[in-house]
Write a structure and sequence with these properties.
The chain has 387 residues and is mainly alpha-helical. The protein has 14 helices and no strands. It is elongated and about 90 Å long.
Length: 387
Amino acid sequence: MQDSTIRLGRTPVPAAGPLRRLAGRLNTKRAGHMVHGAKTLIAAMLTWSIVAPWSPEGRPYLAVTTALLMVNASTVYQSVTKAAQNVAARVAGLILALATARLLGPTAGAVAAIAVLAVIAGPRRTADDRLQVASTAVIALAATATDPMGSFLSPALQTLTGAAVGIAVNALVLPPLYLNESDSAVRDLARSIGTLLHDMGTGLSGRQLTPKAHTWLHQARSLDKRLTRAEEQVQQADESLRWNTRCVAHKRRKETTFDDTFRVLRGVSIQVRGIARTLADNAHDNHSEHHLGHQFLDQYAETLHLAGAAVQAFTEPRPAGGQPDTSPPPPRERLRAAIDGTLAWHDTMTDTIARGTLTKPGAWHVYGSLITDAERLLADLDRTNTH
């Protein structure tokens, strides 16, 4: 069982695979740009047709601007939250303009008062919100002095109308989902971890611990960048499902956003980093009695190959129901085989160390650290696979 699993772990990825993924991403981006442009045009024209008849001089620029901001939000949830912030900032600016116009009139003193009040009165707001409050107040200052109520009601109604139209278009016309991006980022993370494990196994079996140990450690540390990217994509995918009409219509809310999978891979990456750190420390340990024996390195190389195959199989999609079995075995069977093979190796090595028959007994603490990291790595995968 172990040999077949190892061969699966070492199976090269066809060159056409990455090319197909790249072509698919380009097509998806192109289609996304077209949908994005169509939604922007619809929101602008619809807002203009609704607001122009009653806006001052038939120029609903404020409403159209607000609608464009809302329809260009990356998710429906963000369009709603941004709309609330935008409307609140605009109304606050108009009220500030109305108050300063009554007290000071459209003067330089009023502009200075607006700037000071916008900073002092809104410490909990973001810099963008404070800037929007101040800019709205300054722009509305002159009109507020001549027509206080008209200059307040019209911009407020335009802002509300534009926000409502932008949210409606964003929510009803192919609202954005980021499941594919989340899927791709998590799979990329799993491939990177699996490849590193496979490379470490190949290096150990080829007696290349000393020249390659620090390279493996650097690669393990660089996984943090892929972790950050995957976490951002998973969070965005999860947010894109909130209040999304496509999820309601097609019952997609229960689809995975790889949230649980990412958490497992984050734990796995910690174990991989620990393995790489232990190997790097041991490679440059000046105490020769602490160096790992060839018997252990050969068998640990096999477990790293098995672990790499397990990590890569962990994120592979399950075959659709009703599809016949194909060769190689389905991902879940490959994952199960890799886990079983590694756990069997772990039991063998633990027994060997316990009986004191392992070469280089002075490195027992290093053996224990490496075996523990491998055990935890596979335990995380096994626990999630069972669920």
